[in-house]
Amino acid sequence: MKLDGLTVVDLSLFLPGPGATQMMADHGARVIKVENPNAPEPTRSAQAFPWVQGGETVMFRNTQRGKESIALDLKSEAGKAALTELIRGADVLVEAFRPGVMARLGFDTDTVKAINPRLVYCSISAFGQTGPWRDRPAHDTATVAASGVLSLSRSPENDTSGPAIVGVAMSDMLSSWLALSGILMALLRRETTGEGDYVDVSMLDAVLAASPNILGPVFAGQQAPDRFAERSHGGGAMLNIYRTADQRFLALGGGEHKFVKALFEGLERPEFIAAVSGPAGSGHEAAIAFLRDTFVQRTLTEWEAWFAGRDICWSPVLDLEQAWSEEHVYAREMRWTDEQENDHIGIAIKFDREPGTINPQLPAMGQQTSKILDELDLTNAQRRAILSAL
């Protein structure tokens, strides 16, 4: 596999860091998860993450598969010695503490570089290692709120509705993918220079970087978007959500002229084609009102039959269970079931050569501690101190 031979030391918790390192594990990297024996990975807890399958939480299974776990108290001298040796033999280190924590533990960037100049050291935090917000505590929703994106997440039918929580951990996952990209770029460059690098990934930055299609009013007009004048926020007839007769919803998802023409000719209202082919906003209002009145007259199943064979960009609005039960999702192997009939999120990066492979094994907290310690240059006293804490 693509990352065979790489060793990753993972100090991160929850989603952004573990998501990135699991993708690396799926493609062949050895990922050693460092857990605090007194406060292990939070996603192991069925109290915090109550949906359990096969004895493990679904969250833990889908962020920690294929990894090894070593239990280390990084405030102890023996724990620090073990982490030092892990770093010495690793290619990548990933951490997601608040800025400054790694320095207080004795593993700031200069110290780590001195231990292993070839290491790629990646820090993931809410607001980054610099700037006036660096010390603010935050998880996904707070960083999405700070990005301005949360203000846009509301019903296109009702401008008075307040912001709605985005249905996926947007900043967590975007920063996870950004971390993976940065790590791989640094590893590629290391092939030329022989030197590692430091990668500073901010969850806020990840959302800001994902926003080029919504920044026209901000950059060109120095103003927040008027949602109903913007094509992707409810002001466009062809990028909108419509209710059906059975209180379900469908989404139109593309405003190219060919889609506009196919829709309104099919509905026998060609007079809307010219306006809807133009800029979003007031010119679309009459068409949006017509579509709302029209789509609510038939059930979603009836509309599915009507759309069949027509060149129109659309989709039923599926709930999460419906989406993950679709034949297409199984055909793409994005829902994968192991021999014990536990479900896994599949591998999204697909290669013709050396494709990734899911290893469904999950480590118990500290399961590989003794084995990994045997690989490290530690004294017997240090080994005993670490093992006695388990």
Written description of the protein model:
The protein is α/β, with parallel strands linked by helices. It has 2 domains: 7-209 and 340-388, Crotonobetainyl-coa:carnitine coa-transferase, domain 1 (Rossmann fold, 3-Layer(aba) Sandwich), CATH 3.40.50; 239-312, formyl-coa transferase, domain 3. Helix content is 39%, strand content 14%. The strands form 4 sheets. Strands 5-2-1-6-7-8 form a 6-stranded parallel β-sheet, with helices on both faces. The chain has a 3-stranded antiparallel β-sheet with strand order 9-10-11. It is elongated, with a radius of gyration of 25 Å. The chain starts with 6 loop residues before the first strand and ends with a helix.
List the helices and strands and how they pair.
Layout: E1 7-10, H1 16-26, E2 30-35, E3 52-53, E4 56-57, H2 58-64, E5 68-71, H3 77-88, E6 92-95, H4 101-105, H5 109-115, E7 120-125, H6 140-147, H7 170-193, E8 197-202, H8 203-209, H9 216-221, H10 231-235, E9 239-243, E10 249-253, H11 257-266, H12 273-276, H13 285-295, H14 300-307, E11 314-316, H15 320-324, H16 327-331, E12 335-337, E13 343-345, H17 369-375, H18 380-388
Parallel strand pairs: 1-2, 1-6, 2-5, 6-7, 7-8
Antiparallel strand pairs: 3-4, 9-10, 10-11, 12-13
